Amino acid sequence: LRRxxxxxxxxxxxxxxxxxDPAAASRARELVGxxxxxxxxxxxxxxPSVADARHTIGALERLGSNSxxxx
Length: 71
Fold this sequence. Notes:
The protein is mainly α. The chain has one domain (about 1-65). Helix content is about 60%, strand content about 0%. It is globular.
């Protein structure tokens, strides 16, 4: 999960969102969805399931690795 969190934080950062910043939680949820956000931010039991991890990987892939284009 650590690597997934690192990848998620990097992807979100490219979109101007700091995963570790509670003030950015609503924007992060908009970008990846509630389930993926909870998976990326949970550090206690119960840990996310394999299905949660797969879902999160999909959400991050849909988000893309590049920052959004600016007009």
